């Protein structure tokens, strides 16, 4: 009589734990992502199975070095600390229009993102005014910085845009806000950030004294199941504080 073959199944508890970890991407109270906590658990398990009394090393396994530095997993964010003076602008004198890459100092960004490395500024077009090449002012700027001080990995960023300089800026702001209010992801901040601002998705648009200014950005480190969720998280933690910095100078 032929014996029935039997299969060996992984314990159900192990499978359930693996599924739970793989399907969770929200952040914990300490700002650590579920993926980071899973990695911590794996590392802890590997350490507990290191060679020792009663623990035979597996094939190819090595004991972790106690002097190896732990990779940072917590993202700590700060608040706005304006350090620059209030910017004086004349709508009739283009030379007074601020360069977008001069609106934030390294110290101001460091106050908001203390774990960020050196800031790299990239002016972006268009430039104004086109009719006076000697007075060209870059109205867009991308502020990028390495994710961890001293690292050379992918970068996080903040982008600032100035759309126009006019003494009728309030009229344009109201018109744009009315249009934006019809779209998903709209939020009206009123003047809570230091100047009139509203949000659409992960971008915040504000009315300065003589210009419309907007701020957005991104980071691959923040938690979120989707790109939009990551952008929204970065906006909540960083861009809101960036706008507070700008309001002290442009509001």
UniProtKB/TrEMBL annotation:
Q: Where is the composition biased (Low complexity)?
A: 27-72
What top-level branch of life does the organism fall under?
Answer: Bacteria
Q: Does Signal count among this protein's keywords?
A: yes
- Residue numbers spanned by region Disordered: 27-73
Q: Which UniProt keywords apply?
A: Signal
Signal sequence coordinates: 1-27
- What's the protein here called? DUF3558 domain-containing protein
Organism, by scientific name, is Yinghuangia soli
